[in-house]
Every structure is written in C-alpha cells, then in structure tokens.
Amino acid sequence: MIPLILFIYVWLRLVLPLPLSVYTKAVLAALLCAASLKQQFFAAVGGNFFSPELPRWLIELYGVAFGALFLLFIFTLLKDLLLIVLAAARLFSPSVPHISLTVGMAMIFAAAAVSVSVYGTYEAQRLPRIHEIAVSLPKLPPEFSGFKIVLLSDIHISASRRADYAEALVKRVNALSPDLILITGDFIDGLVSERSADIAPLAGLSAPYGVCGVLGNHEYYFNAKEWKDFLEGSLGIKILLNEHRLIERGGKNIAVAGVADLAALRFANAEAPDVKKALAGVAAGVPKIILDHQPGAAKRNAAAGADLQLSGHTHGGMVPGLSQLVKKFNAGYVNGWYEVDGMKLYVSPGTGIWNGFLTRLGVPAEITVMNLSSSD
C-alpha cells in the first residue's frame, strides 16, 4: 500500500502537470509503477519478498529504483510544502514570487534521486566499517578490564550478499582479535537449503571465548529450529535461546544471556521470550549482558537485572527522517546508546541490511568493537 501511495503522489504532483506528450507520461508512469511494485516482483519472480532468489545485480537495480522513487516522493512533497508556504505568504505580500514546476526542475529531481539512491545502495552493500567504543559495566571484575567483544547484527546473508561477502566479513572480524564474538540475530534471508553455502564462511569466526548469538525475526520467518540447529551444529555458533553462558577469566565471571525474538510469539511451536529463564541462576554480583534482537523490551530486561543489552533489528533507521518512524515501532530506540532504568542499551545500526529497503544514507553499517571496563 505505501509504495503505491508513493507512486500515485509522484505521478499526480510531479509528472502529470508537466508539458509532456501522452506517450512520454505513459512511459514515466510505467517506470514509476514498476519501481513501486518491488515487493510484488520479488515475491512473484524471486519466490519471496524477504529472500528473492534473483541475481545480485537485479536485486541491487531494483533497490536503486525503489530508493529513487522514495526520494522523488520526498522531493515532491518538499516542493509542494514550499508552494503552500509561498501561497500563504502572498496573502500578506503580493510580491512573493510564483514558482512553477518545469521539465528542467523535474529532471533535476530525477537526477538527484537516482544519484543519491545509487550511492545509498552502494553504502548498504559495502563491507561494514569498524566502530570502536568503550563500555563501562558496574562491578566488572578487574580480570575483564580490556576484554574485547565484537558485536555483529543483522548480517542478512542473502542472494545479494553471498559467500564472498561472508568470507570478507570473517576476515575483517578475525583481524580485530576479539576475545568474544556476539551476534544479535538476523543472520540470513532464506531457508537453510538456500543459504547454507552462503553463510558457511561464518564457521571461520574465531575468538578465545567463542561465538554466541540469538535468533532474529528473520530466522523465524525461515524455520527458526532448522536455523538454530545449523548455526550450532555446522557453524559452531552457540544460540542462546532463553539461556545464558558464564564467561570465566582469571577465576571471575560475566554472564552472557540471550532471549528468543518477539517473532516467536507468532509461531505455535516456538519458545516465547523469557528473560527470567535466561538469567536464572546467575549470581547477583555477576555482570549480566543480554542479547535481544529487538530493542523494544529494554525495560523488561532492565527489570530482570541485566546490566547491558545488545540489540539490532532497526538498521539504525537507514536514512534520515525514516529513523523517526522506526523509533515508533521500537519503543523509541533506533541507534546507539541509551540508558534504560539503570541498564545500558546499545542498538547496532547493523552489519548488513535486508533486501526490502536496500539503502543506507548517513547510517553506515558497522562491526562494533566493545572494550570493557569497570564503572566503579
């Protein structure tokens, strides 16, 4: 529905008023309509909107087209708002100029939309940057001072990010020499039968204290049980499903816990999120890190005693302005650091991105390097 609204608005307010031939307007209408039908094309031709089994170039081309449509909608909306402001101003001052839509103006809009969309798609598909941050935790044992955690989230290995991407990501992570690697869900888009070869390089992730993670909503869309079994059995990634691990160093511990994703509530045979179960048995003085794919339950996790929550899911909002909408669906959390009832929350902008909106503008993907220290 929303993509159709974008098409109709751009058509009515940008294309239809132009002094062009009926044939030219029909061609432009067809192009705009095709861009808006990305979801339907991926589902009908690629087999699945979330995981279209199509060539990478075609997925990226459609990503550029849809991104350009989205930007044309923004440009057209801003143009109309300006016209409204000028019309209101003329009520008080007739000398305020009239601005008319011209073919040249429309061409500038189109060129800008396509150029920015090409860049946004490139930014979405490139290898993530390294983002290093210091993390202070209450009562962190001195033995863990300088302990290095690498956080990955929303890798979304798919038909547009295959084994070569996964291999390059593993090399970049291992070069950081992490003590522990944590992954907060959305490893893939696709079934195990479709993605196993593409995600296989993640078996090469290496850290002295291992690799742990939780499932994201996309794993549930593609058979969460099969993915949990494959991630653990074939890739050696421990999936924390309402459970925890004690990380021991120098005789002292920190706890890393994980909860099921909220998407589990939509599947009858899936275990629901249970933070109390995940933290059960952890001694009161042990610092508790909890992995929760979606950040929205931060207050619940803080009340359960977590000291630090690591999440993803939002992709950082992806583009300026859109982050405000993403916030509304994630309890106000979209990117970076938050304090939630005495608990620290870090929301990763994501290591990859899904094919549904293949654009990043001003919100680069990241591999997050967290160096622990005590806040005492």
For the structure shown, list the relevant keywords:
376 residues; alpha/beta; 6-stranded mixed β-sheet; 12 helices; 12 strands; 18% strand
What does the model show?
- The structure is a single chain.
- The protein has helices at 2-15, 22-36, 38-45, 56-90, 103-125, 163-174, 192-199, 217-221, 224-233, 275-279, 298-303, 322-328, and strands at 129-137, 148-152, 180-184, 211-214, 238-239, 243-249, 252-258, 288-291, 308-311, 336-340, 343-347, 366-374.
- It is an alpha/beta fold.
- α1 packs antiparallel against α2, α1 (2-15) crosses α4 (56-90) and α4 (56-90) packs across α5 (103-125).
- The radius of gyration is 23 Å and the shape is elongated.
- The N and C termini lie far apart (52 Å).
**Averaged pLDDT, please?**
95
Strand order of the largest sheet: 1-12-2-3-4-5
Low-pLDDT windows of residues: none
- Give the helix/strand class: alpha/beta
Q: Which bin fits the share of residues in helices?
A: 25-40%
Q: Could you tell me how far the N terminus lies from the C terminus, measured between alpha carbons in angstroms? A: 52 Å
Strand content range: 15-25%
User: What integer value in Å does the Rg equal?
Assistant: 23 Å
Task: Tell me, briefly, the overall form.
Answer: elongated
Q: Which sequence of SSEs, written as H and E, runs from N to C?
A: HHHHHEEHEHEHHEEEHEHEHEEE
Give the number of DSSP strands: 12
Q: How many H/I helical runs?
A: 12
**Main sheet properties:** 6 strands, mixed
